[in-house]
Write a structure and sequence with these properties.
The complex is a heterodimer of chains A (about 625) and B (about 375). By secondary structure, chain A is an alpha/beta fold. Chain A has an eight-stranded mixed beta sheet, sandwiched between helices. In chain B, the strands form seven sheets. In chain B, strands 2, 4, 13, 14, 15, 16, 17, 18, 20, 21 and 24 form an eleven-stranded mixed beta sheet that branches. In chain B, strands 25, 26, 27, 28, 29 and 30 form a six-stranded antiparallel beta sheet that branches. A four-stranded antiparallel beta sheet of chain B has the order 6-11-10-7. By secondary structure, chain B is mostly beta strands. The longest helix of chain B is centred in the middle third of the chain and has 10 residues, at about 200-210. Classes of the chains: A alpha/beta (about 625), B mainly beta (about 375).
C-alpha cells in the first residue's frame, strides 16, 4: 500500500463504451471524500480515435467544477494536454488511476476438457479478470470438431485461455483442443498485425505438446495449471496473465491507450510508479472483495446496463469472489432479449394494468433501437421496471448456477454433511447469510423514487432473513476498485461515505403458509421514538421509517414453519439499519415466492404492495 | 460499411460521402486511385482459408496414435485429391491391408502423433468486395481495400434487415402515412427499391420477395410481423446478415409510424434514380444504422467532405418525437428551460417546449427527441 498521508488529491476515470466518467477524491478534514465528478463522451472511435481526448475532456470538467466549488481559479488538473501529476503541494494531482471497458471490453474465448470442470474453472478465471467470455469450447461440449473450428475462427477474441486436465493426467484431450485452435488459426479482434495471445493454464505435462502445436502460430504464454487437481482451483496466475496481456496487447491496440498508460501513476512506497489500467469489471470485483474482507460481510452486487447485466458476489467465510456477465440481458441494447428470455407473461406479471400486447412489443423494440430515450409516461416507467425485474432475476439465476463449489472433486463427508446432503457443485450463494445487496446501473440509480429501486431489488433477488439494501448512485465502484491498488484506505472510505446510498433493510421470513395466517410478529423500536408492533399476516409488505445512519432495535418472531435466520419459528433480537427508504418487512414468502397467475387475483395484490412500498404516485394506485 | 450514428438521423439531398471498402483478410486491390467505379464493380478480393476437416486417422487405421507415422503416404503441407490414399497398413503377409483415402480435395494441415488426428483443409474460398456506391477511388489501402467517394442524396434509417443491395427507387405510397396493401406490388417492382409509407406488413414483404423486389423503405414495421418473417425474435440489435432475399430499411421505428415528410419527399424527388441501400444495424458503442445512398452528378473538385457537425438544439429547431406520447410527430422547439423538470413518470429531466405539427404545445424530455436538419 502507498504512503496514504501524501495522497491529498486523486483523479480516477472509467473509460466506458460511451462515456468517460471522472471523479475527484480529496483528503478533507482527516478523511477521503469524493468531492466532484465529471463526464464526457468516450473518444476511442472515429473521428477522434484517441481515448485520451475524452479523458482530458472529463477531467477538464472536473477542473471547472472544482474551481467553482472552491471559488479558486488557480486549481489546475490539466497541463500540456495531459493530467498534471506533481508531488508539489497544492498543484495538480498526486495520483491518477483509470479503468476501461471501451471498445467492447476484454473479449475472450476459453477452452477446457470437461465443460463442467476445467472448462468452468477457465471461465471463472476469465470472468474474474473482467472479461466477457464469448464461448467455452470443451472436448465434451457435443459439437463436432469441425463446428468448433468454425466457431473459433468466427469469434475473433482478444485472447484465448486454454485449460484442461489435472496435473499429470492424460494429455490427449488438451492436445486435441490445441490442434483445433491451431487449425482455426484465429485472428485477434483488433488489428491483424500481431499474433493472437493464447494463455495455456492446463495440465503441466502437456506444456511441450502445446508449445509444439501453437508456439509458432500464436503468441503463447504458459502459466500454472488453473485446476491442478479436481478439488483445487488456482486461478490467480491465469488471471494475472490475462491482466498483463490486456495491457500489453488489447489496450495497446486501442487508439490512444499507449498514451493513457503513461499517465496512470501513483505513489507506492514514496515513489511515483505506473498503475496499470484495469478492466472495469475486474476493478468492481476488487472493491467488492476489499469491502467484504474489511467488514467481514457477504456481499452481492448487480450492475444492470443497456447491453449486459453483471452480477458480483462474495460469499462464505473464505470470501470467495464470483462474477458473471449475462451478456444479453440489458435495458436498451438487449431489452428485446429480456423479453425473449423471460417471456411476455413473466414481464406482465409485475404490471398492475392491462396493456395491448402488440403495443408493448413495439415499445420494447423501439427502446432497443433508440436506447437513450427515457420513459415520460408513468405506464412506460412501470413497464421498464417490470422488464428490469425479469432481467435481474435471470441474471441472478445464472449467477447462482455459476457461483458454485468445484464440480467433479471428491468431497470428504462427515456424518453431519451426509445429513445436509450438499452435493459437489452446489451454489455457494446463500441469501439467508447475505449481508448487503447493492444495485447499480441506469434503471436502478436513476429511478425517480428510491422506493422503486428497493422494490426492484427485493422482487428480483428475493433476499431472505435480514439484508441491507443499497445502490451505487453514480457507479463509482470501478474507479474505487483501481484506487484500492494504491490506497485501500481512500477507496474504502469513499465507498462507505460517498459511493453507496443505503436504502434500508429488508426482513423476509423464508417459507410459505396460507394467506392471512400470521407470518411475522415484529416489535421494532424506531429511531423516532415510536414503537411499531404488529402481527403481520402472510402475503403482506410493510414499510417503516428509519433514516440513513439510524438503527432500529427489533424483536422478530416468524410464524410457525418460517425462518428469519435463527431456525424455523425462532425469535431473534437484532439491529435493523435504516436508509433513504427505510425498513421493509416482507411476508410474501420465500422458497417459494408465488404470484397468482390470474390477473383478477394478482393485480389487486400488486396494487396493495405498490401502495405500501410507496413506489408510484397515488393516482396510479 | 455503415456510417457511425449521430444524434438525429441524417436526411439530406446532398452530401459528400466516403466509404471504406475493406477486405476481411489481406488480399488484392483491383482498382487504383482515381478510378471511377460503379456500385457493382469488384474493387478487392482475397482468398479465405478453406474449412478444416478433422480426420481421425488412428481410428481409421486401427492403430494407436504413436504408430501412424510408419503408415503415412503423405506429410503435412501436401496437396491432396479426393480419393487419394493417405495411409496404408502393412497388413498380414501383404494381405488384408487397410488403406485410408482422402475425403476431400485440399491440403494436409497437420498430422498429430499424440492424438492420431489429421487436419485436412479444403481449398481456399474467394471473397470479393464490391464498390457498393458509384464514385471515385480516392485512396487505396495496400492489400486491404479502398476508399470510395461520391456526392449523394443520403438518408439514414433507424433499423434494417439484410445487407447491401441496389436498385431504382419506385414510390408505392402516395403519402407518408399510407399503409400499402400487397396488391400494389406487381412485376414492375422487380429489382426496384420500393418506398412504402407508415408500415410494411408481413404480407407486403412476402409479396415483394415473390416478385423479386431489391429493397423496401418504410416508416414502420410491426414486431410480430418481423418475428413471423425471420422465424425468431431479434434479441439483440445486430442485424444485416438476414437471408431474406431483399433489404429492408425502416426510417422511424416499430409500429405504424408515418414516414417523416422530408424523408418521403426526398425519396419522391429521386424516383427512378439508382439507390444503394443496406439494412446493417448495430446499436451500441460504434453504432451503425441502415443507409440509403442515391449518387448524384458531381465534379471532382466538389468532393470536399464537410466537417461533421453536431446537430444543435435551439429555439426554432425542427424535432421529431421518438418516444410515447406523440411518438413520430414533428414539431418546432419553442423553449429550452435550463432547470430539471419533473415529468409524469416523476423522472427529473432536462426538457424542451415544442409546438407539434398538430398545433399542440407540449413539453418533452430532451432525450426523447431527435433533431431534424431542415
Amino acid at each position: 500500500m502507498g504512503n496514504t498521508q501524501k495522497l491529498k488529491r486523486i483523479i480516477a476515470t472509467d473509460c466506458g463504451s460511451t462515456t468517460t466518467k471522472s471523479i475527484l477524491i480529496e483528503y478533507v478534514d482527516g478523511e477521503y471524500r469524493q468531492t466532484v465528478r465529471g463526464e464526457a463522451p468516450t473518444t476511442v472511435e472515429k473521428p477522434l480515435n484517441d481515448v485520451t481526448r475524452g479523458v482530458v475532456n472529463a477531467v477538464t470538467e472536473l477542473e471547472e467544477l472544482a474551481r467553482l466549488k472552491y471559488n479558486d481559479d488557480s486549481i489546475k488538473f490539466i497541463k500540456d494536454e495531459a493530467i498534471w501529476l506533481t508531488e508539489k503541494e497544492g498543484e495538480g494531482v498526486d495520483a491518477y488511476v483509470s479503468t476501461s471497458s471501451a471498445g467492447g471490453g476484454l473479449q475472450m474465448m476459453v477452452t477446457g476438457v470437461v465443460a463442467k470442470m476445467t472448462g468452468e474453472s477457465a471461465e471463472r478465471a476469465a470472468l474474474g479478470a473482467g472479461a466477457i467470455v464469448m464461448d467455452l469450447i470443451a472436448s465434451n461440449d457435443k459439437r463436432a470438431n469441425y463446428e468448433k473450428i468454425e466457431r473459433i475462427r468466427q469469434l475473433r477474441p482478444d485472447m484465448i485461455l486454454m485449460a484442461g486436465g489435472v496435473d499429470g493426467g492424460t494429455t490427449k484431450h488438451v492436445a486435441e483442443l490445441a490442434e483445433l485452435v491451431g487449425a482455426a488459426d484465429p485472428k485477434p479482434r483488433l488489428g491483424s498485425s500481431y499474433k493472437l495471445p493464447v494463455i495455456y493454464a492446463g495440465n503441466t505435462s502437456a506444456q511441450d505438446i502445446i508449445k509444439e502445436t501453437l508456439g509458432n502460430k500464436t503468441d503463447l504464454i504458459i502459466t500454472e495449471n488453473l485446476r491442478p487437481t479436481l478439488d483445487r482451483e488456482n486461478l490467480g496466475p491465469a488471471r494475472d496473465k490475462i491482466h498483463d496481456l490486456f495491457m500489453e496487447h488489447v489496450m495497446a491496440q486501442a487508439p490512444g491507450y499507449n498514451k493513457l498508460m503513461g499517465w496512470t501513476k501513483g505513489p507506492i512506497d514514496g515513489k511515483l510508479v505506473n498503475i496499470p489500467i484495469m478492466p472495469t469489471p475486474a476493478a468492481v470485483g476488487n472493491i467488492m472483495q476489499t469491502i467484504a474482507k474489511i467488514n467481514d460481510i457477504e456481499v452481492l452486487g448487480v450492475d444492470i446496463g443497456g447491453a449486459t447485466t453483471d452480477v458480483f458476489s462474495v460469499f462464505t467465510e473464505h470470501k470467495v469472489f464470483n462474477r458473471t456477465v449475462s451478456a444479453n440481458l440489458g435495458m436498451s441494447y438487449s431489452i428485446s432479449n429480456v423479453l425473449a428470455t423471460a417471456g411476455l407473461q413473466n414481464i406482465l406479471r409485475w404490471v398492475p394494468f392491462d396493456i395491448d400486447e402488440s403495443e408493448l412489443l413495439n415499445m420494447i423494440k423501439n427502446k432497443m433501437i433508440r436506447p437513450t430515450t427515457i420513459p415520460q409516461k408513468l405506464e412506460e416507467l412501470i413497464l421498464e421496471q417490470a422488464i428490469a425485474k425479469e432481467a435481474l432475476r435471470y441474471a441472478f439465476i445464472q449467477h447462482k448456477e455459476f457461483a458454485a463449489g468445484l464440480k467433479g472433486g471428491q468431497k470428504k463427508r462427515e456424518i453431519a454433511d451426509a445429513f445436509a446432503q450438499t452435493a459437489s457443485g452446489a451454489s455457494i450463494v446463500n441469501l439467508m447469510t447475505l449481508d448487503l445487496l447493492v444495485g447499480s446501473g441506469g434503471v436502478m440509480s436513476h429511478a425517480p423514487r428510491r422506493n422503486q429501486s428497493v422494490m426492484m431489488l427485493i422482487d428480483s433477488f428475493l433476499p431472505e432473513g435480514i439484508t441491507r439494501l443499497a445502490v451505487d448512485s453514480i457507479f463509482m465502484m470501478p474507479q474505487l476498485g483501481v484506487l484500492a491498488e494504491i490506497s485501500e484506505k481512500a477507496a474504502t472510505e469513499v465507498f462507505e461515505k460517498d459511493c453507496l446510498i443505503y436504502l434500508g433493510s429488508c426482513v423476509a421470513p423464508v417459507g410459505a403458509m396460507k394467506q392471512g395466517k400470521i407470518a411475522l410478529h415484529a416489535k421494532i423500536k424506531l429511531p423516532n421514538g415510536k414503537t411499531f408492533e404488529e402481527n403481520i399476516p402472510f402475503g403482506e409488505v410493510r414499510l417503516l421509517p428509519c433514516g440513513v445512519g439510524e438503527v432500529a432495535k427489533a424483536t422478530l418472531k416468524p410464524g410457525r414453519g418460517l425462518n428469519i435466520g435463527e431456525g424455523k419459528g425462532q425469535e431473534m433480537d437484532c439491529d435493523l439499519h435504516g436508509g433513504v427508504v427505510g425498513i421493509v418487512l416482507d411476508t410474501r414468502g420465500r422458497q417459494p415466492f408465488n404470484l397468482p397467475v390470474e390477473a383478477a387475483k394478482r393485480v389487486p395484490l400488486l396494487k396493495k404492495w405498490m401502495k405500501e412500498f410507496k413506489v408510484y404516485p397515488e393516482e396510479r394506485e | 460499411m455503415a456510417q457511425a450514428y449521430s444524434p438525429g438521423l441524417t436526411v439530406t439531398k446532398s452530401i459528400v460521402l466516403k466509404k471504406d471498402r475493406i477486405l476481411p483478410l489481406k488480399g488484392k486491390v483491383l482498382v487504383k486511385k482515381g478510378d471511377k467505379v460503379k456500385a457493382e464493380d469488384i474493387v478487392a478480393e482475397t482468398l479465405l482459408p478453406g474449412k478444416v476437416l478433422p480426420f481421425n486417422l488412428s481410428n481409421k487405421l486401427g492403430v494407436t496414435a504413436d504408430l501412424i507415422g510408419q503408415y503415412l503416404k503423405v506429410k503435412a503441407g501436401d496437396k491432396i485429391k479426393k480419393g487419394q490414399v493417405m495411409a496404408v497398413t502393412n497388413g498380414f503377409l501383404g494381405f488384408f491391408k487397410t488403406s485410408v483415402k482422402s475425403p476431400i480435395d485440399g491440403e494436409i494441415e497437420s498430422i498429430s502423433k499424440i492424438t492420431g488426428q489429421m487436419l485436412l483443409r479444403e481449398p481456399r474460398i474467394p471473397i470479393q468486395v464490391k464498390a457498393f456506391i458509384d464514385g471515385i477511388v480516392v485512396d487505396v489501402i495496400k492489400e486491404e481495400g479502398v476508399v470510395i467517394e461520391n456526392k449523394s442524396a443520403y438518408i439514414q434509417g433507424i433499423f434494417g434487415l439484410s445487407g447491401e443491395r441496389s436498385g431504382e427507387i419506385k414510390m408505392l405510397a402516395d403519402s407518408p402515412d399510407e399503409v400499402i396493401k400487397p396488391d400494389k406490388i406487381d412485376d414492375s417492382c422487380k429489382d426496384k427499391v420500393i418506398v412504402c409509407g407508415a408500415l410494411v406488413s408481413y404480407d407486403v414483404i412476402k409479396k415483394a420477395q415473390k416478385v423479386g423486389v431489391s429493397g423496401i423503405i418504410s416508416g414502420g414495421i410491426d414486431d410480430q410481423d418481423l418475428k413471423k418473417l425471420l422465424g425468431y425474435n431479434i434479441g439483440v440489435a445486430i442485424t444485416g446478415h438476414e437471408n431474406i432475399g431483399l433489404t429492408i430499411v425502416v426510417t422511424e421505428g416499430f409500429g405504424i409510424i408515418k414516414m417523416a415528410n422530408n424523408t418521403f419527399s426526398l425519396l419522391k424527388s429521386f424516383e427512378g434514380h439508382k439507390a444503394s441501400i443496406h439494412g446493417i444495424t448495430q446499436i451500441r458503442a460504434g453504432v451503425m444504422r441502415p443507409e440509403i445512398i442515391i449518387p448524384i452528378e458531381f465534379k471532382e473538385d466538389e468532393l470536399k467532405a464537410e466537417e461533421p457537425k453536431m446537430a444543435t438544439l435551439e429555439i426554432g429547431t425542427t424535432i421529431r418525437v421518438i418516444r410515447q406520447p406523440n411518438f413520430g410527430l414533428i414539431g418546432k422547439v419553442t423553449g429550452l428551460p435550463e432547470k430539471l423538470t419533473k415529468v409524469e413518470s416523476e423522472t427529473m429531466v432536462r426538457i424542451l417546449e415544442a409546438e407539434l405539427e398538430t398545433g399542440e404545445k407540449v413539453t418533452i424530455p430532451r432525450a426523447n427527441v431527435e433533431v431534424i436538419e431542415d
